[in-house]
Amino acid sequence: MKRHGILNAELNAALSRLGHGDLVLLADCGMPAPRGVPVVDLALVQGIPRFDEVLAALVGDLVFESATVATEGRGTDTENWVGSRIGQLSYVSHEELKVLSGSARLFIRTGEATPYANVLLTCGVPF
Asked: Which of 1, 32, 62, 90 is most solvent-facing, going by the fewest CB within 10 Å?
């Protein structure tokens, strides 16, 4: 039994396969899943689990060197949630974020219903 960290078996297994430079899309419940990208769907009902809760759990378990968010999300809770946990932020249009999500190694769907609560996380290394 794990002592702490992410307990969801499917998510834990998917995270364990990630390496430096791999992309993870953490998304709200409305973001379309890109074809061919493995999906871990955590959404239970609208709002559960929240984007910021899942982001906090991911940051507690993994190293991310940067994050990409939609320019439409500037000045929103999403920018604050991501900016407070990931040092390096870059911005692209929401449409470009959807295109970039096709190169993600993992898509994690939350129950979040906040507009533009999506982030493309780039995995780093702990050394």
From this structure: 1
Half-sphere exposure of residue 78, counting CA atoms within 13 Å on the CB side?
24
Model confidence pLDDT, tens digit, residues 82-105: 999 998 899 999 999 999 999 999
20 catalytic per annotation: yes
pTM for this entry: 0.95
Tokens of 35: 């074809």
User: Cα–Cα distances in Å, from 113 out to 28, 46, 47, 77, 106?
Assistant: 6, 6, 6, 12, 20
Q: Largest Cα–Cα distance of the chain, in whole Å?
A: 42
Q: Which amino acid is at 51?
A: F
Catalytic residue among 7, 17, 20, 103: 20
